[in-house]
Amino acid sequence: MKFLDAIPYDIVVFALVSVLLGYRLWRVLGRRVGVSEAPAPRVVPVARPEAIVAAPAAEPVATHEIPAPGTRVGQVLATIATLEPGFVPERFLRGVETVFRSVVLAFATGDRDKLRATLTPGAFEAFVSALEARQAAGEVLQVEIVAVQSLAIQDAAIEMPGTGTQDTGPRTDVKRGMIEVLIVSRQISLLRDRDAQPLVGTEAVTEFSDLWRFERVFGMQTGGASWRLAATRAA
Protein backbone atom coordinates (compact mmCIF):
# COMPACT_ATOMS: atom_id res chain seq x y z
CA MET A 1 0.00 0.00 0.00
CA LYS A 2 2.88 2.34 0.73
CA PHE A 3 4.12 1.77 -2.86
CA LEU A 4 0.78 2.80 -4.36
CA ASP A 5 0.60 5.72 -2.03
CA ALA A 6 3.96 6.88 -3.34
CA ILE A 7 2.77 7.11 -7.03
CA PRO A 8 2.17 10.75 -8.06
CA TYR A 9 -1.27 10.29 -9.64
CA ASP A 10 -1.60 13.92 -10.58
CA ILE A 11 1.56 13.75 -12.65
CA VAL A 12 0.45 10.55 -14.36
CA VAL A 13 -2.91 12.09 -15.28
CA PHE A 14 -1.27 15.20 -16.68
CA ALA A 15 1.10 13.04 -18.71
CA LEU A 16 -1.74 11.01 -20.21
CA VAL A 17 -3.63 14.19 -21.07
CA SER A 18 -0.52 15.64 -22.72
CA VAL A 19 -0.02 12.51 -24.80
CA LEU A 20 -3.65 12.54 -25.90
CA LEU A 21 -3.57 16.21 -26.83
CA GLY A 22 -0.28 15.76 -28.65
CA TYR A 23 -1.69 12.88 -30.69
CA ARG A 24 -4.76 14.86 -31.67
CA LEU A 25 -2.64 17.86 -32.58
CA TRP A 26 -0.37 15.64 -34.72
CA ARG A 27 -3.39 14.30 -36.58
CA VAL A 28 -4.67 17.79 -37.36
CA LEU A 29 -1.38 19.46 -38.19
CA GLY A 30 0.01 16.40 -39.90
CA ARG A 31 -2.85 16.32 -42.41
CA ARG A 32 -2.48 20.01 -43.19
CA VAL A 33 1.26 20.00 -43.83
CA GLY A 34 1.37 16.64 -45.55
CA VAL A 35 3.05 14.65 -42.81
CA SER A 36 0.35 12.02 -42.64
CA GLU A 37 -0.36 9.59 -45.43
CA ALA A 38 -2.22 11.31 -48.20
CA PRO A 39 -5.79 10.12 -48.54
CA ALA A 40 -6.78 8.36 -51.72
CA PRO A 41 -7.97 10.86 -54.32
CA ARG A 42 -11.71 11.11 -54.61
CA VAL A 43 -12.94 10.26 -58.09
CA VAL A 44 -15.74 12.56 -59.16
CA PRO A 45 -17.67 11.15 -62.10
CA VAL A 46 -17.97 13.63 -64.96
CA ALA A 47 -20.77 13.24 -67.43
CA ARG A 48 -19.36 12.57 -70.89
CA PRO A 49 -21.06 14.67 -73.51
CA GLU A 50 -22.52 12.98 -76.53
CA ALA A 51 -20.29 12.98 -79.58
CA ILE A 52 -20.78 16.23 -81.44
CA VAL A 53 -21.03 15.77 -85.17
CA ALA A 54 -20.29 18.95 -87.03
CA ALA A 55 -23.12 19.78 -89.38
CA PRO A 56 -22.06 20.14 -93.00
CA ALA A 57 -21.43 23.71 -93.94
CA ALA A 58 -24.56 25.20 -95.38
CA GLU A 59 -24.34 26.15 -99.01
CA PRO A 60 -24.16 29.95 -99.29
CA VAL A 61 -27.25 31.60 -100.69
CA ALA A 62 -26.76 32.81 -104.25
CA THR A 63 -26.65 36.56 -104.71
CA HIS A 64 -29.10 38.13 -107.15
CA GLU A 65 -28.32 41.16 -109.31
CA ILE A 66 -31.23 43.02 -110.90
CA PRO A 67 -30.79 46.09 -113.10
CA ALA A 68 -32.05 49.34 -111.62
CA PRO A 69 -35.51 50.51 -112.81
CA GLY A 70 -34.01 53.53 -114.59
CA THR A 71 -31.79 51.43 -116.89
CA ARG A 72 -32.85 50.13 -120.27
CA VAL A 73 -33.01 46.54 -118.99
CA GLY A 74 -34.86 47.68 -115.87
CA GLN A 75 -37.50 49.35 -118.04
CA VAL A 76 -37.94 46.19 -120.08
CA LEU A 77 -38.44 44.18 -116.90
CA ALA A 78 -41.09 46.67 -115.79
CA THR A 79 -42.88 46.22 -119.12
CA ILE A 80 -42.71 42.44 -118.77
CA ALA A 81 -44.41 42.82 -115.38
CA THR A 82 -47.35 44.53 -117.10
CA LEU A 83 -47.64 41.68 -119.60
CA GLU A 84 -47.20 38.84 -117.12
CA PRO A 85 -49.15 39.38 -113.90
CA GLY A 86 -47.11 38.37 -110.89
CA PHE A 87 -43.74 38.71 -112.59
CA VAL A 88 -41.07 39.76 -110.07
CA PRO A 89 -37.39 39.73 -111.09
CA GLU A 90 -36.25 38.36 -107.72
CA ARG A 91 -38.73 35.50 -107.94
CA PHE A 92 -37.74 34.93 -111.57
CA LEU A 93 -34.08 34.48 -110.57
CA ARG A 94 -35.02 31.99 -107.86
CA GLY A 95 -36.82 30.03 -110.54
CA VAL A 96 -33.79 30.26 -112.82
CA GLU A 97 -31.60 28.71 -110.13
CA THR A 98 -34.04 25.80 -109.80
CA VAL A 99 -34.11 25.32 -113.58
CA PHE A 100 -30.33 25.57 -113.78
CA ARG A 101 -29.84 22.75 -111.30
CA SER A 102 -32.53 20.64 -112.95
CA VAL A 103 -31.24 21.08 -116.51
CA VAL A 104 -27.57 20.47 -115.65
CA LEU A 105 -28.38 17.22 -113.86
CA ALA A 106 -30.97 16.13 -116.45
CA PHE A 107 -28.43 16.60 -119.24
CA ALA A 108 -25.85 14.58 -117.30
CA THR A 109 -28.26 11.71 -116.65
CA GLY A 110 -30.05 11.88 -120.01
CA ASP A 111 -33.46 12.71 -118.52
CA ARG A 112 -35.36 13.86 -121.61
CA ASP A 113 -38.64 14.43 -119.81
CA LYS A 114 -37.14 17.08 -117.51
CA LEU A 115 -35.40 18.72 -120.44
CA ARG A 116 -38.59 18.82 -122.49
CA ALA A 117 -40.46 20.53 -119.64
CA THR A 118 -37.92 23.36 -119.29
CA LEU A 119 -36.48 23.96 -122.78
CA THR A 120 -37.85 25.56 -125.90
CA PRO A 121 -38.41 23.10 -128.78
CA GLY A 122 -35.26 24.28 -130.55
CA ALA A 123 -33.09 24.02 -127.45
CA PHE A 124 -34.55 20.62 -126.66
CA GLU A 125 -33.56 19.29 -130.08
CA ALA A 126 -30.01 20.60 -129.60
CA PHE A 127 -29.71 19.00 -126.18
CA VAL A 128 -31.08 15.67 -127.41
CA SER A 129 -28.61 15.65 -130.32
CA ALA A 130 -25.75 16.17 -127.87
CA LEU A 131 -27.13 13.40 -125.63
CA GLU A 132 -27.40 10.94 -128.51
CA ALA A 133 -23.86 11.71 -129.68
CA ARG A 134 -22.54 11.19 -126.16
CA GLN A 135 -24.39 7.92 -125.73
CA ALA A 136 -23.28 6.64 -129.12
CA ALA A 137 -19.68 7.29 -128.16
CA GLY A 138 -20.17 5.50 -124.84
CA GLU A 139 -19.21 8.61 -122.92
CA VAL A 140 -20.38 9.36 -119.38
CA LEU A 141 -20.77 12.85 -117.95
CA GLN A 142 -20.14 13.24 -114.21
CA VAL A 143 -21.58 16.47 -112.81
CA GLU A 144 -22.06 17.81 -109.29
CA ILE A 145 -23.26 21.33 -108.54
CA VAL A 146 -21.38 22.35 -105.41
CA ALA A 147 -22.89 25.83 -105.21
CA VAL A 148 -24.67 28.45 -107.26
CA GLN A 149 -22.85 31.63 -106.33
CA SER A 150 -24.70 34.36 -108.20
CA LEU A 151 -27.36 35.07 -110.78
CA ALA A 152 -27.48 38.40 -112.60
CA ILE A 153 -29.93 39.63 -115.23
CA GLN A 154 -27.73 40.85 -118.08
CA ASP A 155 -30.26 41.67 -120.78
CA ALA A 156 -33.97 41.66 -121.52
CA ALA A 157 -36.06 42.39 -124.59
CA ILE A 158 -39.59 42.17 -125.92
CA GLU A 159 -40.10 40.96 -129.47
CA MET A 160 -42.93 42.23 -131.64
CA PRO A 161 -44.92 39.53 -133.46
CA GLY A 162 -43.93 38.85 -137.04
CA THR A 163 -41.30 41.57 -137.25
CA GLY A 164 -38.41 40.41 -135.10
CA THR A 165 -38.08 43.98 -133.79
CA GLN A 166 -37.89 44.81 -130.12
CA ASP A 167 -39.67 47.42 -128.10
CA THR A 168 -39.50 48.39 -124.45
CA GLY A 169 -42.85 50.16 -124.22
CA PRO A 170 -46.07 48.49 -123.07
CA ARG A 171 -47.91 47.08 -126.09
CA THR A 172 -51.03 44.93 -126.18
CA ASP A 173 -49.82 42.92 -129.18
CA VAL A 174 -46.50 41.86 -127.70
CA LYS A 175 -46.00 38.11 -127.91
CA ARG A 176 -42.52 37.14 -126.76
CA GLY A 177 -40.11 38.20 -124.03
CA MET A 178 -36.43 37.37 -123.56
CA ILE A 179 -34.26 37.54 -120.44
CA GLU A 180 -30.58 36.65 -120.36
CA VAL A 181 -29.04 35.60 -117.03
CA LEU A 182 -25.38 35.27 -116.06
CA ILE A 183 -25.02 32.25 -113.74
CA VAL A 184 -21.82 31.74 -111.76
CA SER A 185 -21.53 28.32 -110.16
CA ARG A 186 -19.00 25.95 -108.66
CA GLN A 187 -19.17 22.47 -110.13
CA ILE A 188 -17.39 19.20 -110.59
CA SER A 189 -17.71 18.34 -114.26
CA LEU A 190 -15.87 15.50 -115.96
CA LEU A 191 -16.56 13.71 -119.23
CA ARG A 192 -15.19 10.15 -119.45
CA ASP A 193 -14.88 7.87 -122.45
CA ARG A 194 -16.20 4.31 -122.67
CA ASP A 195 -13.08 3.11 -120.85
CA ALA A 196 -13.72 5.55 -117.98
CA GLN A 197 -10.75 7.65 -119.02
CA PRO A 198 -11.14 11.43 -118.59
CA LEU A 199 -11.71 13.39 -121.77
CA VAL A 200 -12.79 16.87 -120.71
CA GLY A 201 -13.00 18.46 -117.28
CA THR A 202 -11.66 17.56 -113.88
CA GLU A 203 -12.74 16.10 -110.56
CA ALA A 204 -11.66 19.33 -108.85
CA VAL A 205 -14.27 21.94 -108.04
CA THR A 206 -14.23 24.53 -110.82
CA GLU A 207 -15.99 27.86 -111.23
CA PHE A 208 -18.24 28.18 -114.30
CA SER A 209 -19.79 31.32 -115.77
CA ASP A 210 -22.67 30.72 -118.17
CA LEU A 211 -25.14 32.92 -120.00
CA TRP A 212 -28.58 31.34 -120.22
CA ARG A 213 -31.30 32.93 -122.34
CA PHE A 214 -34.91 32.37 -121.34
CA GLU A 215 -37.95 33.07 -123.50
CA ARG A 216 -41.61 33.49 -122.69
CA VAL A 217 -44.59 33.59 -125.02
CA PHE A 218 -47.08 35.95 -123.37
CA GLY A 219 -50.75 35.05 -123.26
CA MET A 220 -50.05 31.44 -124.18
CA GLN A 221 -50.52 28.54 -121.77
CA THR A 222 -47.97 25.78 -122.17
CA GLY A 223 -47.22 22.71 -120.13
CA GLY A 224 -44.15 22.93 -117.94
CA ALA A 225 -42.26 26.14 -117.30
CA SER A 226 -43.59 29.42 -118.68
CA TRP A 227 -40.08 30.86 -119.08
CA ARG A 228 -38.11 28.27 -121.03
CA LEU A 229 -34.41 27.93 -121.67
CA ALA A 230 -33.70 28.87 -125.29
CA ALA A 231 -29.90 28.96 -125.47
CA THR A 232 -26.75 28.58 -123.37
CA ARG A 233 -23.16 29.69 -123.83
CA ALA A 234 -20.08 30.22 -121.74
CA ALA A 235 -19.63 33.76 -120.49
UniProtKB/TrEMBL annotation:
<keyword id="KW-1133">Transmembrane helix</keyword>
<feature type="transmembrane region" description="Helical">
    <location>
        <begin position="6"/>
        <end position="26"/>
    </location>
</feature>
<keyword id="KW-0812">Transmembrane</keyword>
<dbReference type="InterPro" id="IPR032710">
    <property type="entry name" value="NTF2-like_dom_sf"/>
</dbReference>
<protein>
    <submittedName>
        <fullName>Mitochondrial import inner membrane translocase subunit Tim44</fullName>
    </submittedName>
</protein>
<dbReference type="Pfam" id="PF04280">
    <property type="entry name" value="Tim44"/>
</dbReference>
<feature type="domain" description="Tim44-like">
    <location>
        <begin position="73"/>
        <end position="234"/>
    </location>
</feature>
<dbReference type="InterPro" id="IPR007379">
    <property type="entry name" value="Tim44-like_dom"/>
</dbReference>
<keyword id="KW-0472">Membrane</keyword>
